[in-house]
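hey so i finally got around to running the thing on that chain from the lab meeting. sorry it took forever, my laptop kept dying and i had to restart like 3 times. anyway pasting the input first so we r on the same page abt which one it is
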Amino acid sequence: MNARLRRCAIAAATTALAVALAACGSAKEAGDKGKEGDGAKEGAKGDDITVGLLLPENQTARYEKFDKPLIEKKVGELTGGKAKVVYANAKQDASLQTQQVDTMITNKVDVLILDAVDSKAIAGGVKKAKEAGIPVVAYDRLAEGPIDAYTSFDNEEVGRVQGKALLDALGDKAKTGQIVMMNGSVTDPNAALYKKGAHSVLHGKVTIGREFDTKEWKPENANSNMESAITALGKDKIVGVYSANDGMAGGIITALKAAGVTALPPVTGQDAELAAVQRIVAGEQYQSVYKPYSGEADAAAEMAVALAQGKDVKAVARQTADSPTTKGVPAVLVPVVSLTKDNIKDTVIKDGIYAPTEICTPKYRAACDKLGLK
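ok and heres what got predicted. didnt touch it at all, straight out
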């Protein structure tokens, strides 16, 4: 029997069971009662499921613009539009996110897709969900606690891609000046992986004049850190900047301009935010990391629906990942692409992330024309 027929058979059997139980007035009890500790509901469910989606913040454009709608779309496709996605954004507040998890548990969602603000702080919430029979898919960041599945990008590779791009841009200047490293938030486990990957490429090939772990990924904090680095090192001594994401890259570039730097050094980034793509077009930012969000979102939706329906996620997750608390978590890691002015047309435009008209506003029209972006 092929996969489609198996799904249909499961859905049909589940529907018949639900009807029978409803006649006895016990369907809700059977559907809500979880098997403690095993992360699965008693009795398989069909397509009529509720997916709780918890994203970490709304300062980075990607979560509201890409991740949320992509996950909602894929869940709908997988369930014939019968599933419901309940959404909450923690706005970079770990305590708020813990409350949101509690609310999802109280409302008896069938599965959680969780992108943690603080991977350690959320472990208690993940444990509560597990005890309530609600499986948890860790999204983008590897949350601690008994998670059931994980999807993200190869985050050390992100750092390696950024580091290599910076070296390529520096050329011989790598030996003569100093760089500044602007890493991400210490509460985000991915930030440590980006940092590790970047160091593996940059170590011994550049002089790191200043390095920062930027609080909460905030551009204004990166801006303040960069001002400090410029004061300490001298604006003419900084030949490049490793920035872990695009939001911080914007703050860094603002600080460099305010200090009177006219020939901007190469600055890296991540997330291919529209403002960053425009800065790349204009020659202000050298590079970003394009992460095909649809691959990550689709994997999360597929694993979440499978878990909610009591199915094995191994057909989706061909890899495993280890968190400090859970080993061998079924995982999907999506490849990334280094984005520069040379491949904008073949990446974010080709994939429909941005239309040329979105990028090439009047301010950037002349630069777009030079790159053939129409």
